[in-house]
Design brief:
Elements (H helix, E strand, L loop, with lengths): L4 H13 L23 H20 L2 H9 L2 E6 L4 H21 L8 H21 L3 H4 L3 H9 L17 H15 L7 H22 L1 H7 L2 H10 L4 E6 L2 E6 L14 H19 L3 H6 L14 H29 L5 H8 L3 H27 L26 H34 L2 H27 L5
Antiparallel strand pairs: 1-3, 2-3
Length: 473
């Protein structure tokens, strides 16, 4: 049976790749400003079949050698130093300059570097980089360097107050929900002055928390960006282990670190589900379907202020619905497998959400990264709106047409579709291995995963529909 493993893995990879090779007649533009009129059923069916086939293939793969294969790592290099404090201090100075630009620079969000760096390079670009390279945020966050400096000056490293372990990730859920609401629903999330005020307040709030409770405790359970980035980094094939004064860097299979991850409490489950549901609702709220549902003509969109209340309700309902579906699916799967410890199972299986969340992040924000990323680079040439062109990258050089036209639409949509399908396939694989470790039996693991496989098939179809359904810009 073990000799069949490479063939089965090849079949699985082929199932991921082939849907993206469909002919142009079935392609769809993904730019959110396009009105998409071509049929989508071919992609929806291909995505659903691919995820279903991946689950069926796993039934034929013996879990023990598959788990050993996933856990293999290779040593790459040794970093003889830990430069986090220096990198973080530079990041802090850069953040201070961005805040100054937010207050004193251009009022145009496409010319001011603060909204472009925060929403494009940080929230989109760095999140994707976390999934590829590991926890860069541990080096680049703007708190560690200043906090380390205060420790050297006499600050108590462990803080002065104790945060009970029982609180779990609850302190991070509410700030993350507020962040999602500010990004998606607030009427002016890209206004440089408002954003500069919000960033300043949040930096001071978090820094005070690190002083009171200690850096490690605060970033582990309260500072939502650190919690989110650390969870996303678990899918990276790269891993770092302390070695002397530096780190040893290893490479393995994507997602392999999640197989042996510790179970999250229900508050941690809620945090990850909030991350996925917020991105999904960001796609849903721009669709003609959602706007018609809340009584808005998408061709005569009245502005964000009119839809604040219905979109706020929609964001919360999306989170509640996804949480209910996930927890209900886990509960049903554990009942079918003859187990009653569904809370522990949920805390383990939710790690399979990470590749799905990263895939949706890539798919949803790809066009924004391609265009607004250029504006971000251009803004560095004149950060304070003084007529400079320091690096020769002024806004006049931005090529917004990179996402326009039928050819660009075909490539972008297929990249997005491939990411969503691959994310769900990897999630199915990880969930299967986690369930096997949880139950100690391939048969019981398979039975417990039947409801989860159906949920992932349904969510794949939903994600592909979001990419291809008519939407407002």
């Amino acid at each position: 049976m073990t000799s069949r493993l490479p063939h089965l893995l090849f079949l699985l990879l082929a199932g991921i790749v082939l849907p993206g090779l469909s002919g142009e007649a079935f392609a769809h533009a993904s730019n959110r400003g396009h009105v998409l009129l071509l049929p989508t059923q071919h992609y929806l069916m291909g995505g659903a079949i691919t995820v279903a086939v991946s689950f069926l293939v796993l039934l034929m793969v013996p879990p023990e050698p598959f788990a050993r294969l996933m856990e293999k790592r290779k040593f790459l290099l040794r970093l003889p130093f830990d430069g986090r404090a220096v990198a973080s201090m530079l990041s802090f100075l850069f953040a201070a300059a961005l805040i100054y630009a937010g207050f004193k620079g251009s009022r145009d969000p496409l010319a001011n570097p603060l909204p472009l760096v925060l929403w494009t390079l940080l929230w989109i670009g760095l999140t994707l980089a976390q999934g590829l390279t590991g926890n860069l945020w541990a080096w680049l966050n703007p708190w560690y360097g200043p906090w380390r400096l205060l420790v050297r000056l006499g600050l108590r490293e462990g803080g002065y107050l104790t945060m009970p372990a029982a609180v779990g990730y609850r302190p991070a859920v509410l700030p993350f929900l507020c962040f999602a609401w500010f990004e998606l629903i607030f009427i002016a999330p890209e206004d440089p002055a408002i954003l500069a005020t919000a960033v300043t307040v949040y930096w001071l709030f978090s820094f005070c928390g690190m002083i009171l409770f200690g850096y490690e405790v605060w970033t582990e359970r309260m500072e939502f960006l650190s919690v989110f980035m650390r969870m996303i980094a678990q899918i990276s094939p790269f891993a770092a282990k302390p070695l002397g004064n530096g780190n040893a860097i290893f490479i393995g299979w994507p997602g392999s670190k999640l197989i042996k991850a510790r179970p999250l409490p229900l508050s941690g489950v809620a945090f990850l589900l909030l991350a996925l549901s917020s991105v999904s609702f960001d796609g849903l709220m721009h669709t003609f379907t959602w706007n018609a549902f809340i009584g808005i003509n998408p061709l005569e969109f009245p502005g964000r202020s009119v839809v604040v209340v219905p979109n706020t309700i929609g964001l919360v309902l999306m989170f509640v619905l996804l949480s209910g579906l996930f927890l209900g699916t886990v509960w049903l799967g554990e009942r079918l497998a003859g187990s009653r410890d569904w809370v522990k199972a949920a805390g383990l299986l939710v790690w399979a959400i990470v590749p799905i969340s990263l895939a949706y992040h890539f798919a949803h924000y790809l066009t924004a990264l391609l265009v607004d990323g250029q504006y971000a680079i251009a803004s560095f040439s004149d950060p304070f709106f003084l007529g400079w062109d320091l690096f020769g990258t002024a806004i006049r050089h931005v090529q917004a047409g990179i996402v326009l036209g039928s050819d660009a639409a075909w490539y972008i949509w297929n990249a997005q579709a491939a990411a969503i399908i691959a994310g769900h396939v990897l999630a199915v694989m990880l969930a299967h291995l986690v369930a096997w470790r949880l139950h100690g039996s391939a048969r019981r693991a398979t039975i417990s995963q039947i409801p989860m496989a159906l949920l992932m098939i349904g969510y794949t179809v939903f994600g592909l529909w979001l990419l291809s359904t008519p939407s407002i810009g």
